[in-house]
Amino acid sequence: MLPKARQPEDTRPIICGYCSTGCSLDVHLQEGLPVNLSASPDFPVNAGMACPKGWEALTPLAAADRATTPLLRNENGSLEPCDWERAMVVFCGRMREIVGRHGGGAAAWLGTGQIPSEELAFLGALARFGLGFRHGDGNTRQCMATAVSAYKECFGFDAPPFTYGDFEESDVLVFVGANPCIAHPIMWQRVMRNPHSPDILVIDPRHTETAAAATVHYPISSKSDLILLYTLANLLIRMGATDMDFIRAHTNGFDDFRNFVAHYDVVAASESTGLPIDAIEDLARRIARGKRVSFWWTMGVNQGHQSTRTAQALIALALLTGNIGRPGTGANSITGQCNAMGSRLFSNTSSLFGGRDFGNATHRSEVASLLGIDAAIIPDSAGYAYDQILDAIEAGEIRALWIIATNPAHSWIDSGRFARLREKLEFLVVQDMYATTETALAADLVLPAAGWGEKDGTFINSERRIATVRQVSRAPGQALSDFRIFQLIAAYSGCGAQFARWTSPQAVFEILKELSAGCPCDITGIGGYAHLDSSGGIQWPFSGDVTAVPTEIAIATERRLFEDGRFFTPDRLARFVFEEPRKMPEPTDADFPLLLLTGRGSSAQWHTNTRTGKSDVLRKLHPSRLYCEIHPDDASSHRLNPGGRVVVESRRGAVVADVMVTASIPAGHVFLPMHFPETNKLTLTWVDPISRQPGYKACAVKLQAP
Ligand SMILES: Nc1nc2c(c(=O)[nH]1)N[C@H]1C(S)=C(S)[C@@H](COP(=O)(O)OP(=O)(O)OC[C@H]3O[C@@H](n4cnc5c(=O)[nH]c(N)nc54)[C@H](O)[C@@H]3O)O[C@H]1N2
Ligand SMILES: Nc1nc2c(c(=O)[nH]1)N[C@H]1C(S)=C(S)[C@@H](COP(=O)(O)OP(=O)(O)OC[C@H]3O[C@@H](n4cnc5c(=O)[nH]c(N)nc54)[C@H](O)[C@@H]3O)O[C@H]1N2
Ligand code: SF4
Ligand SMILES: [Mo]
Q1: I need a surface site. Which of 57, 253, 432, 532 has the fewest CB within 10 A?
Q2: Closest CA to ligand 2's atom 14
Q3: Residue 158 and residue 150 in contact, taking contact as beta carbons nearer than 8 Å
Q4: Strand locations in 530-626, DSSP E?
Q5: What is the number of the ligand closest to the CA of 454?
Q6: Model confidence over 507-565: pLDDT tens digits?
Q7: What is the CATH number of domain 9-62?
Q8: Ligand 2: which of 674, 688, 701 to mutate, most ligand atoms within 8 Å of CB?
């Protein structure tokens, strides 16, 4: 217990602003200021647990490099403080001029999955319908686009079906390209609470912390998952592990799928995947034996050259074995960022508000009438995806770019190209908490933003649970919430009237409810923030009369989707979708003989480290410099010693890293964590053709002595 004098006067629970687990943190306040925090003991997600990032969540708010005033690039080329008045005049003036001269196709925005849904919706409405920007996307493209595409085609809507209770109810859990021990530690704690002694089966080229804790680890050759999954489907069908009643009643396309996978034989699969024949057959038997099998995937699947089909092959395994809609089952994409799900439904980028389609005239007129705008200003397609926006900058078509809460100069694939594209932009605006991010340093105008804990709103976590974040701290200097910045831009650009109802996050939450009405993500039954707070968050969908639903039911009900076997497709049937596997775009060769994998390095580092890098506590929990994981055989053939330095070179560039010799990486592969800016200097721009998500996780490199 704290000494009496330091007892907090007040405690305010808010959802953590890092990963999509959505843990609740109790922030303790004294004289209105946050003094520390603890994990909320009764919240249904984390039940008193938090990971290092959560425990240290307040520290980055006080960092010395917070952006405290707008910054404008002057004639000498350096960024100089200015006031909001000037920043707004410049922002609106330059944007108006560029859009006026070249049309809305000359301006684009890149948003995020890390600000509240209310802010994302404001941004999406303002940029598209207020300022007339034709193209907008977000970092969710780097992360979740594949899951979105896969779900939409198979289920008829972007609908991750699970609830975290499923981690505890499965008797078989299959993790593909996911490392929850590091990336979603509190979800992993939920797996550890599973009382059924489950089989935990991990498919990952690396012997990760998660793989080490598994019942069986399948060290698959990178990017051969699709062949493995089709082979498993064939084996399961031949074993009679299919649930024919479910398939007949609730799915479409099974016969074609069965014929398609019939030629995927285990001998060829063993060659492609590097897994022994016995191991593949044993994996199929374990899935067949399971009564409640859940399939979980993350970036090892989503970031690939045929990632949508790979995710859909996982969905097919769940469908054909009838493992969906029951406790402990599902084809479950684990989300990345704290509000990636909010960005998928409400950012108005690749989907129209509410998960609707830009291409659907009825959807456009619904949104137009709900927002009180002319349907003609809603375009009939989403516009360019992230990579296409960058191509259009290169082609001179897009001249103005507004970047909000993402750091692409570090995180985008082949980041050297991003630096070159900067030169092509007439106007680059970066809206961030920090003035020191790689992207902010390149901007013409920096808009200083309040961060997590300094503003109100809601996040939607990986299990579709909507819960609140609240202001517990004041933003430094003149920094403003993103919400307030959007209000200012609306006012200065002359479209304030269109946003007369957008007065506060709470008011926008009501608009989001209206926008969701009748959609699969209907949340019209949520009363408001107080209802969310008293319920431990509420999973979508949640429609109907709020007074008819007692709070206890909102708490107790696990909102798992598809319990009635009815999907969101027009015929209410789930689809089997499949395609012949293709070769990876940049395989290894004599010049570049090793395959580079990238991903999360530690539970203490968040992405480009702008926030986590500000905590002394977190900095002690990870290496301070870029390191490269190298198998002992490759280390010895290259005469590299632990603790030494190595040059890792790809066709895009070369970087220097510390040598880390470890058998957790298979021979022929090396691994670099994404948290250091060097890593993406090496990666190769290639995207899945359907989801347009980049394939960060495989390109050819070579090692050299420095
Ligand atoms: N500490 C921490 N936690 C985070 C984040 C963070 O930055 N730091 N970021 C959050 C976000 S936005 C996301 S998207 C998630 C990501 O969470 P994860 O996807 O779990 O993390 P990654 O390390 O990117 O990738 C997972 C695994 O994919 C494997 N992999 C690579 N290629 C292949 C392949 O071809 N096949 C298979 N089967 N596996 C492959 C890698 O070896 C890696 O272990 O984490 C979230 N949580
Ligand atoms: N090599 C490699 N690269 C990868 C990946 C990989 O696996 N390998 N993974 C990819 C994935 S899955 C993801 S999600 C991306 C993430 O890539 P980014 O989105 O670029 O990474 P972050 O560091 O989270 O950047 C968020 C930025 O928003 C700022 N910020 C935080 N809160 C706020 C706020 O409330 N308002 C405003 N205005 N700014 C705020 C932060 O300071 C930071 O600069 O990286 C991708 N890049
Ligand atoms: S697991 Fe994710 S949501 Fe929970 S405390 Fe850690 S970073 Fe925050
Ligand atoms: Mo992500």
Answers
A1: 253
A2: 143
A3: no
A4: 538-539, 574-575, 594-599
A5: 2
A6: 999 999 999 999 999 999 999 999 999 989 999 999 865 555 555 544 456 789 999 99
A7: 2.20.25.90
A8: 674
